[in-house]
Amino acid sequence: MTELQALAAEIAQCTKCLLHRGRTKAVPGEGLEDSEIMFIGEAPGFHEDQQGRPFVGAAGRFLEELLESIGLTRQDVYIANVIKCRPPGNRDPLPDEIEACKPFLDQQIDLIQPKVAVTLGRFSMARAFPKARISQIHGQPRKIGGIVYYPMYHPAAALHQPSLRRTIEEDMQRIPKLLKQAEQMTESELPAQAEQLRLF
Ligand code: SF4
Fold first, then answer.
1. Is the terminal CB of the chain with fewer CB neighbours within 10 Å at N or C?
2. CA max distance for the chain
């Protein structure tokens, strides 16, 4: 068993926040364990909770299309979420739930050591871009602790707001170049709230 698999087994048994009570299955994450690129979504929805896999609903199909547009498949990347158990009715995760679950995502990033971590949506963006507005910073990378964080809208946003689809597709197209440039990029000046990321 790899360290990531052991972590997934630990997540499946976790009771650190109340979300464990409503879950069918925890959704630890899946994909290539030494991938250069990691996608970090928000929280499992209905289908993810049923199957124990991330991004398997309509937003997942769009993510697969986006990956295909840059010559990748799900098997080439690692996909995880900020929160590993489904919030009831797909509500936004609460601050104490995000805090309770944070060590799992920290460990996943630490074990995978991606060159690029793509944050999908507001809650994963907040790890590297605290207090930022996604409409202002999507598509703008920032290197922190040796990892390039790249904020994008959540694919589900395009399902609710079709005008965002093109923006998401365009941001995706910049990823191959970003992967090539990641090692040469200089570390960003950090807002104080993001300083803790250096501790990964
Ligand atoms: S959401 Fe995270 S912290 Fe809460 S029970 Fe699930 S795995 Fe544990």
1. N
2. 45
What would the pLDDT profile of 158-189 be if each residue is shown by its tens digit?
A: 998 999 999 999 999 999 999 999 999 999 86
**Cα separation, 196 vs 63, whole angstroms:** 29
Give CA–CA dist 164/158, Å, rounded.
5
Question: CB 184: neighbour CB atoms within 10 A?
Answer: 7
Tell me the pLDDT tens digit for each residue of 5-21.
Answer: 999 999 999 999 999 99
Q: Among 7, 10, 13, 15, which residue has the most ligand 1 atoms within 8 Å of its CB, making it the best to mutate? A: 15
Question: Mean pLDDT in each 10-residue stretch from start to end of the chain (200 residues)?
Answer: 96 98 97 97 96 96 97 97 96 96 97 97 89 93 94 94 95 97 86 48
3-class state of residue 120 by DSSP: strand
Task: Quote the ligand 1 centre to 136 CA distance (angstroms).
Answer: 30
Q: Is the CB of 85 under 6 A from ligand 1?
A: yes
User: For ligand 1, atom 6, which residue shows the shortest CA distance?
Assistant: 85
pTM: 0.93
b/e per residue 143-154 (b: at least 16 CB within 10 A): bbbebbbbbbbb
Helices (H), 2-138: 3-12, 46-51, 58-69, 95-112, 122-128, 134-137
Contact 116, 37 (CB under 8 A): yes
